[in-house]
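> example.struct
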């Protein structure tokens, strides 16, 4: 069934989905690879569309697959699909340019985080609504982290207590994300990084184990297992 987005919602979600998925191995672009018989992008958009504040969803698809992506998402939710770019940052910028007037909160969410719960979309949006200009979901780092030199010799041990692993959706006041992309230089893989360069504070909310990024074959197998368990 096609999910109805909320015409009174204040949130636009940009979904960069134009990457090749090199680390996942040979095959279709990653967002179109199947997880339990459906493309990763379908899983991701279904969960975004289930978040009650979402007014607009804009997907940046691989340029060659824009029509196929429109067709595959039509039964899921009413989304806008634009061609992505060569770097993630360009894909996000293309999606941002397609957001209509209205939503003042913009979230950026990797299609590769296909099992992200709608509750995380809502909690990031709520933190922006509450007055934070930029909000990222984070998890504590569980492994000990070492800094090494080019020869793999250990330079030191980083204080893990001060580190966070960063997920998406990342949420922004719309004007802040627009300014960050206008000022952007070298491509980054993280929108909050662009906002940091503007000197705007970025705040953290608790992330979710289910928002894992499907990057390598192991992650896809883990996601299959989680779905089979009801995720
Ligand atoms: N992405 C994008 N446009 C690009 C590169 C990445 O929209 N030019 C998207 C991916 O589709 C993904 C998200 O950004 O949903 C996070 O990127 P990543 O996990 O690195 O995906 P890929 O770039 O596809 O994977 P890889 O780096 O292994 O090729
Ligand atoms: Mg990549």
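> example.seq
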């Amino acid at each position: 069934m096609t999910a109805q987005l909320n015409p009174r919602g204040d949130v636009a979600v940009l979904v960069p989905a134009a990457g090749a998925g090199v680390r996942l191995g040979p095959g279709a672009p990653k967002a179109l690879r199947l997880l339990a018989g459906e493309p990763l992008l379908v899983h991701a958009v279904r969960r975004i569309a289930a978040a009650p504040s979402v007014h607009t969803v804009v997907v940046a698809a691989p340029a060659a697959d824009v029509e196929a992506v429109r067709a595959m998402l039509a039964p899921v939710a009413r989304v806008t699909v634009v061609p992505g770019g060569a770097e993630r940052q360009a894909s996000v910028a293309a999606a941002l340019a397609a957001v209509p007037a209205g939503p003042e909160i913009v979230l950026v969410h990797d299609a590769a985080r296909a099992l992200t719960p709608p509750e995380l979309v809502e909690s990031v949006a709520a933190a922006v609504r509450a007055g934070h200009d930029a909000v990222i979901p984070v998890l504590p780092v569980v492994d000990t982290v070492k800094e090494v030199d080019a020869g793999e010799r250990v330079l030191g041990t980083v204080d893990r207590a001060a580190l966070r692993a960063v997920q998406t959706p990342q949420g922004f006041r719309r004007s802040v994300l627009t300014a960050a992309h206008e000022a952007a230089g070298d491509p980054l893989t993280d929108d909050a990084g662009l906002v940091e360069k503007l000197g705007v504070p970025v705040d953290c909310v608790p992330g979710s184990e289910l928002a894992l990024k499907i990057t390598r074959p192991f992650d896809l197998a883990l996601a299959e297992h989680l779905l089979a368990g009801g995720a």
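> remarks
The longest helix spans residues 118-129.
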